[in-house]
Design brief:
Strand content: 25-35%
Number of strands: 37
Distance between the termini: 87 Å
Shape: flat
Radius of gyration: 27 Å
Largest sheet: 12 strands, mixed
């Protein structure tokens, strides 16, 4: 493809003298060849870009550096590069054919809308409703009275248990479980008594949930994943928790019961959120942090127990200086001892 056509795909301008340059693919900065387009999504790769052999590079509109590749200025290099990846990639495998595979098991009384594709060995229980153009992958389980919206994609081995609600354009990766029992027990007379878990899980529109993530049903009411939330692999969301719109939950994070996560919150990998607390809108929880108290909107927390990042840095600064302080005190002690002799 000519570079001029590439520029059109990402809504960028290219010098007329460079429009005829031939492009054969896309690649990372370090690996790009003389016929590739790369991108600068993070300034830490600027040094590598200065020695890159790439033919062209997607850069932010305000980029002012001097680099060998031809500059294609775009609003967001990362998303623009994503468009090029799709264009230059091999075609997807054959699309799912609408219809119910002969090896699937769909109960009488299930409501299957037009254009739905149900793959081999999937099970759909009575009373389930599946919206138009949704794809149910192989070995999926759709429980009784589950409602799934339109244009959803359930990869193989997704389980959605009874009465849970899934919105439109939701993507659930392999191994996702929605609606397993919340972890609720009461210690009584020397044993743990299981508390009934009778609520549901509600997943709103445009949510994507990564592989082997579990979302427990509420004890009563709902566990609620709101519109536009993106959840990574291996995340645990406990009963009656709420995750606000457009929040991000990274791998191995854990949300305890009845926690309320605000809108546009970022929870980094392996962070843990205590139950019955609230994380304000726009807050950021750093990786491996343990949050035991509610957080204010736009607050950045780090550490165990988690504390505001400024306080954490101050404490870390003093801890890092302890060894020098100890050596200084020892020298002062030696001086004092000599003076007293």
């Amino acid at each position: 493809m000519r570079l001029g056509k590439v520029a059109q795909l990402v809504n960028a301008e290219v010098p007329l003298s460079s429009a005829a340059v031939e492009i054969y693919g896309v690649s990372a900065v370090e690996d790009a060849g003389s016929s590739d387009v790369t991108f600068l999504g993070n300034l830490k790769y600027l040094r590598a870009l200065r020695s890159s052999r790439a033919a062209a590079v997607l850069v932010p509109m305000n980029f002012e550096g001097s680099v060998p590749p031809i500059l294609l200025r775009v609003e967001n290099p990362t998303t623009a590069f994503g468009k090029l990846i799709d264009f230059f990639s091999e075609p997807d495998l054959a699309p799912y054919t609408p219809g119910i595979h002969r090896l699937a098991c769909v109960a009488e009384g299930a409501c299957i809308s037009p254009g739905v594709s149900i793959q081999p060995f999937a099970i759909v229980e009575p009373g389930a409703q599946i919206g138009a153009e949704t794809i149910i992958g192989a070995h999926c389980y759709i429980g009784q009275k589950v409602t799934i919206g339109e244009k959803c994609l359930l990869y193989p081995r997704v389980s959605i248990l009874a009465r849970c609600l899934v919105g439109n354009r939701v993507i659930l990766h392999p191994g996702v479980v929605l609606g397993s029992d919340g972890f609720g027990f009461e210690y009584l007379r020397g044993e743990h008594i299981k508390l009934p878990q009778r609520g549901i899980v509600q997943v709103d529109d445009d949510v994507e949930i990564g592989a082997n993530t579990t979302v427990d049903r509420a004890r009563f009411g709902r566990t609620w994943i709101q519109k536009g939330v993106k959840v990574d692999n291996l995340v645990q969301i406990a009963h009656n928790a709420t995750v606000g719109e457009c929040s991000i939950l990274c791998g191995q994070a854990g949300i305890a019961g009845s926690a309320r996560i605000g809108r546009r919150v970022t929870i980094a990998g392996q962070a843990g959120i205590n139950g019955h607390i609230e994380i304000g809108d726009g807050a950021i929880i750093a990786a491996k942090s343990g949050v035991v108290k509610s957080a204010s909107p736009k607050e950045v927390l780090i550490g165990v127990p988690a504390r505001p990042i400024r306080a954490y840095k101050r404490r870390l600064f003093h801890v890092e200086r302890l060894e020098k302080l100890y050596a200084r005190v020892r020298r002062l002690e030696e001086v004092i001892i000599k003076l007293l002799q």
